[in-house]
Write a structure and sequence with these properties.
Helix content is about 35%, strand content about 20%. By secondary structure, it is of the alpha/beta class. The protein has three domains: about 220 residues, no CATH class; about 190 residues, Rossmann fold; about 190 residues, Rossmann fold (3-Layer(aba) Sandwich). Pfam families: SLFN-g3_helicase.
C-alpha cells in the first residue's frame, strides 16, 4: 500500500503550500482507517520539505512521480520516499530514498549495525544504507511487476538531511560498511546537490506515472529466484528430512492446499499437534519450500523472536541469502492484512499467540489467531498446549478451533507422536510427564538420554557449559533488571548459599543460544522456547517445589517473578492456574536438549524427589 502517489510538481506544490502533512494524514485515514500520530506528522513536516528542495534542484520534468510511505506487506516497515521516471536514454527507473533526521551516529558490533539517538537514548539500529538496500531487495524479491519486468531499474540511497559529516573520521563511512555504501550511497546535510545530480541522472525526463503504477499495484508474492533459494537451502539437507507421521502431516497440508484453487471461497485451518521434539519445525520449513515451489504466497510465523532469528540463521547460515529473512514474520504482522491475502500461513509455536502484539492497538473481537486465519486461505498451526507458559498465551487448540469456526474454516487435525529430540527418547518424555504430574503412570527412566540431578549450580556449569558446550536455562524465579545501564549485565540469577551468580541472557542478543560470547549467561523461557541444543542445564528455582507429606509438586506464587505472565490468584477451593504455567515452563526447559539435560533444584525436597524417581 502506498499513501501518496503524485507527480513531482504536485509534491513540490504541496510542500510550498504547507499542505503535505494534511494530505498524508487524510490519505492514511482514508486508505488505512488510522489516525496519524503527532510524532509521525512532525517527521513528515521535517523531512519532506528537505526532499522538495532537492527535487526542485534536480531539474526534472514535471511528470516524474513521487511515492511516499510504501508499506511493505505484512510488516510494519514503510519506504519513506520513491521517485520514478525515465532517464535521458529513455530507461525506466525508480529510486528508493531512505530519509533520516539523525544528527550523529557511532560504530557498533555486528554486520551493518550502528548506534544513534532514538526514542530518548542511544540505541543499536541498522545502517541507513543497509536499510535502503534491504527495502530494494524486498521489492525485487516480492513485487511481481518489478521482478518480472526487468525494464524497470531499481536503485537506492539514504539522505541524512540534518547530519553534518565529520570530514576526518565519519563513523557512517567506516570501511566495515563499504558493501552497503556501494549499493546505497549516503548523502549528508551539505551533499544535497550531489543527491540532486543523482536524481537528475536517474529520472530527469519524467514520465513516471506508468512506473509508479507498476510499483503501487504490483502483486506481492515471492519471486522465482527467492523460491529457488529456499528450495536449495532445504532440499537435500539431512536435517530437514521428513520421517513417518511428519511426512503424513506434510502431505495433508499439501493436499488441502491443492483444493483451494478450485474452492477459493472455502477456508481451511490445520492443527498439527505435537509435544517437544516431534519435528514440528522440520515439517513447517519443508512446507514453506514446497508451497513456494507450487507458486503459493506463503509466510512462516513464529511468535517468539529469538526462535525466529535462530530459524533464519539455521536456514541461511553464513550464506548471502539474507532475502530469505523476509519470509519469516512475527505473529503481530497481520493486524491489517486483507481477507485471504495469503494462500498459506504457517504458524509455529502457535501456543504462544497473544491477544495482540506489543504496542499494537487491539482490534475489537480479534486476537492473533483470528488475524492469521482471516489473512489466509489455508492456515497451519503447530500447537502444544503443554507449552503454554504465560497468562498472555492464548493459542490453545480450543481457541484456534473456536476462531476457525467463527470464520467458517474447515478444521483438520494431525497428531505427532514420535520423538526426535532428547536422543529420540520417548521414554524420557514419558518419565518427565510422570514426575511433573501430566500422567499418573509410573515410568522408569532408561535409554540413551543423558539425565542427571546435580548437587549445586557450579557443578551444573562445569558439566554443561565447560565440558559439553551447552547452555544454562532457568525458570522465571529471579527478577530481571532490564533497566541497567552500561554494557555489564547484572548478575540477576543468584543462589547465595552456593555463592553463585550469573546474568540472564543478553536481551540485545537475539541469537543468544548460539552466540559464543553468551555461554555464561542463563537462558529465560521466553528466549529458548522452540529452540534445541545438544546439552542444557536447567536451574529449577523455588517457584517449583515438592511436598513429601502430600507426595505432590507445589508452586510458590511469591517466588514466580514474571509479573506479566502471572495469572490471577485462585478463588477458595480452586486450583491455582499458576501451577500449570510453572510446570509447563520446566517441562519446556527440560526438553531443549538433544543429547542430555542436567538439573539443579533450589528446593532440596524437589531435588530428592527427582533423584528417587530417576533411580528407583
Amino acid at each position: 500500500m502506498i499513501i501518496y502517489n503524485e507527480t513531482s510538481s504536485s509534491f513540490v506544490n504541496h510542500i510550498k503550500e504547507n499542505k503535505i502533512g494534511y494530505v498524508l494524514k487524510e490519505n492514511v485515514l482514508n486508505k488505512m482507517n488510522k489516525v496519524v500520530s503527532f510524532n509521525e506528522l512532525r517527521s513528515w513536516e521535517n523531512s519532506l520539505p528537505q526532499m522538495a528542495k532537492v527535487i526542485r534542484d534536480s531539474g526534472l520534468e514535471k511528470d516524474a512521480h513521487v511515492l511516499l510511505e510504501y508499506k511493505l506487506p505484512s510488516t510494519e516497515k514503510r519506504i519513506d520516499f520513491i521517485i520514478a521516471g525515465r532517464d535521458k536514454q529513455n530507461k525506466k527507473n525508480a529510486m528508493i530514498i531512505e530519509l533520516k533526521q539523525w544528527q550523529k551516529a557511532n560504530l557498533a558490533d555486528g554486520n551493518g549495525i550502528v548506534t544513534t539517538f532514538l526514542g530518548g537514548r542511544d540505541r543499536e539500529t541498522v545502517h541507513p544504507s543497509y536499510q535502503a538496500s534491504s527495502y530494494k531487495r524486498f521489492l525485487l524479491n516480492f513485487n511481481e511487476n518489478l521482478y518480472t519486468d526487468d525494464s524497470i531499474q531499481l536503485s537506492s540511497c539514504a539522505y541524512l538531511h540534518n547530519y553534518i559529516q565529520n570530514p576526518d573520521n565519519e563513523p557512517l563511512l567506516d570501511p566495515r560498511y563499504k558493501g552497503y555504501l556501494a549499493e546505497s550511497p549516503l548523502f549528508f546535510q551539505f551533499s544535497d546537490r550531489d543527491l540532486a545530480k543523482r536524481i537528475n541522472h536517474t529520472v530527469s525526463e519524467g514520465r513516471g506515472g506508468e512506473i509508479a503504477e507498476a510499483i503501487e499495484y504490483g502483486k506481492i508474492k515471492p519471486s522465482k529466484k527467492l523460491v529457488e533459494t529456499v528450495e536449495s537451502l532445504i532440499d537435500g539437507n539431512e536435517e530437514f528430512v521428513l520421517l513417518d507421521e511428519q511426512k503424513v502431516a506434510f502431505e495433508k497440508v499439501l493436499s488441502i492446499y491443492s483444493q483451494i484453487s478450485e474452492e477459493t471461497e472455502n477456508k481451511h485451518s490445520i492443527l498439527i499437534k505435537g509435544g517437544p521434539g516431534t519435528g514440528k519445525s522440520v515439517i513447517g520449513l519443508n512446507l514453506m519450500s514446497q508451497l513456494l515451489k507450487q507458486n503459493a504466497y506463503a509466510e512462516y510465523i513464529t511468535p517468539n523472536q529469538a526462535f525466529r532469528e535462530i530459524l533464519r540463521k539455521k536456514l541461511i547460515g553464513s550464506t548471502s541469502h539474507v532475502e530469505v529473512r523476509d519470509l519469516f514474520k512475527g505473529s503481530a504482522s497481520y493486524v491489517h492484512t486483507p481477507e485471504d491475502y495469503f494462500d498459506v500461513l504457517i504458524c509455529d509455536e502457535a501456543h504462544r499467540l497473544k491477544e495482540q502484539g506489543h504496542m499494537k492497538k487491539k482490534i475489537e473481537g480479534e486476537n492473533q489467531a483470528t488475524q492469521i486465519i482471516r489473512s489466509s486461505k489455508v492456515s497451519v498451526f503447530f500447537v502444544d498446549d503443554e507449552q503454554v507458559i504465560s497468562k498472555k498465551d492464548i493459542g490453545s487448540e480450543k481457541v484456534i478451533r473456536e476462531e476457525a469456526a467463527k470464520q467458517g474454516a474447515t478444521m483438520h487435525t494431525v497428531e505427532l507422536d514420535s520423538q526426535y529430540r532428547c536422543s529420540g527418547s520417548g521414554n524420557y518424555i514419558e518419565w518427565l510427564n510422570s514426575v511433573l504430574g501430566y500422567s499418573d503412570e509410573e515410568v522408569d527412566l532408561e535409554g540413551d538420554f543423558d539425565f542427571k540431578v546435580v548437587s549445586n549450580p557450579h557443578e551444573l556449569t562445569e558439566e554443561i557449559v565447560n565440558k559439553r558446550s551447552g547452555r544454562l536455562l532457568a525458570g522465571y524465579a529471579w527478577d530481571w533488571d532490564k533497566n541497567s545501564k552500561g554494557r555489564e549485565l547484572p548478575l540477576d540469577v543468584t543462589i547465595p548459599e552456593h555463592n553463585f551468580a550469573l546474568p540472564w541472557n543478553d536481551p540485545n542478543r537475539i541469537d543468544w543460544a548460539i552466540h559464543p560470547d553468551c555461554a555464561e549467561q542463563v537462558g529465560c523461557i521466553h528466549t529458548v522456547q522452540g529452540l534445541e541444543m545438544d546439552y542444557v542445564g536447567v536451574i529449577i528455582g523455588k517457584d517449583l517445589g515438592y511436598d513429601p507429606e502430600t507426595n505432590s509438586l507445589i508452586v510458590r506464587r511469591e517466588e514466580f517473578k514474571d509479573k506479566g505472565a502471572r495469572p490471577r490468584k485462585p478463588k477458595k477451593g480452586e486450583k491455582d492456574p499458576l501451577f500449570d504455567l510453572v510446570r509447563n515452563t520446566y517441562k519446556t526447559l527440560m526438553t531443549r536438549g538433544m543429547k542430555g539435560c542436567y538439573v539443579y533444584c533450589c528446593d532440596e525436597e524437589l531435588g530428592e524427589y527427582l533423584r528417587k524417581s530417576f533411580f528407583k
